[in-house]
Design goal:
This protein is an alpha+beta fold and about 450 residues long. It contains eight helices and 24 strands. The strands form five sheets. It has a seven-stranded mixed sheet with strand order 9-8-7-10-11-12-13. It has a seven-stranded mixed sheet with strand order 20-19-18-21-22-24-23, with helices on both faces. Strands 1-5-6-4-3-2 form a six-stranded mixed sheet. Its EC number is 2.1.1.190.
Amino acid sequence: MAQFFKPQKKSVAKEKKQLKIDSLNHDGIGVSRDNNKVCFVEGALPGEIVLAQPIQAKAKFERLTVQKIIESNIYRVKPFCEHYQLCGGCQLQHLAPEQQMIEKQKAVSSLFDKFLGTSNSSTLHDLNWQPAIESAPLAYRRTARIAVFYDKRKNELLLGYRQKGSKKIINIKNCLVLESCFSDIFSVFSPLLAKLKAAQSITHLQLYKTENQALIVIRHIKALNEKDIKSIVAATEPYKWQLVFEGETGQYQFYNKNPDEQVEINKNKTHLLHYYLDEFDLKLNFSLDNFIQVNHKVNRLMLKQAIDWLNLNRNEKILDLFCGIGNFSLPMAKIANKVVGIEGVASSVEMAKFNALDNKVTNTEFYCQDLNEPMVKAKWFKQEYDVLLLDPSRAGAFDILSQLKLKRFSRILYVSCDPVTLARDSKLIIDAGFKIDKVSLMNMFPHTGHVETMALFIPSRS
């Protein structure tokens, strides 16, 4: 009888390791080396000597978690959240807030140095770092998704976030980074959802804080009966939350809201939400399908800095790639001659057009285009521009940057939510004849490993 070889799973070494932490990486994780292998140590800080437990071993790297701190970083602090050790929402509560941005800047500088190389004119040593855009340390999240999971085996409902390094959901009692209007969300919904007949049908809660209301979208995969709906309404009524039910079809049902208040956008009727950009006398509308920045304060400061750095004038034409609902396009249109915005999500393009109309901004054009595809035949692609603005997703903008004739732009402003793809794309921009004029971090997500960066590029001959 033939015998088949069945490889055994590689076991992770159980022995704890004593390590000296050299730095934090761009995810806020401690970095060390052991026998020429890179060690990523969760919960460790630069300069610390720790005893760490391996949790994953690969050929070139190893993941570990701190078991004991032998020598501590002077900026180590006690986390303010009781769930911090388990919850995957925050990664840097153990580091003093004033030091978080310093360590993030070091991590981003290292990435630039890695991708650009020491022979490049824009290296680790001469990046023109500007002061970071700061956030309130708490109550800064105006949007969030809270997971709901019914454990049949334990007959237990879990309401919270994913556990660190796991897909498991852990129960949360309170989340201090949410806007204060949601401070009671867990104490209200945990007992409420557990009592519902349809508890197993609810998958998550989506939170939105707008200018004049707080919304809770209740996502369910099966229809809720009238009794369950009444129970939800009764329990939440004292908090004045606007309830929205999202069923399996993806349609949103705003509870106790007049259907006549809906607005038709591209033949689809929807209730609109909005936020104000007072500095630019703008009201930005959005629907529940649209992306908006999590941190309203940082968003406003980010827009102001972008316009200050670009020093726009009334004669210039701007190409805004990954424009969304017009968050950058419309403020810049108030100053420039014209703004052309490109976005891959059709609903966001329609909302950007609506926002321009609603704000009486007449010098914008918006097009729906997958920016990972060839652009040579696109009408907007052939036009002449003075300034390029990019605000891509974590995947970056390599594909579209590879197609554009970058030398026609006098300035390129790159707003990034992933420093790895920013550093990678920066090399492409620099190789096209640009240099980095200035860079800054934006503290969009305090206490997390997320890094938001703004970089301005100008022709190297300048």
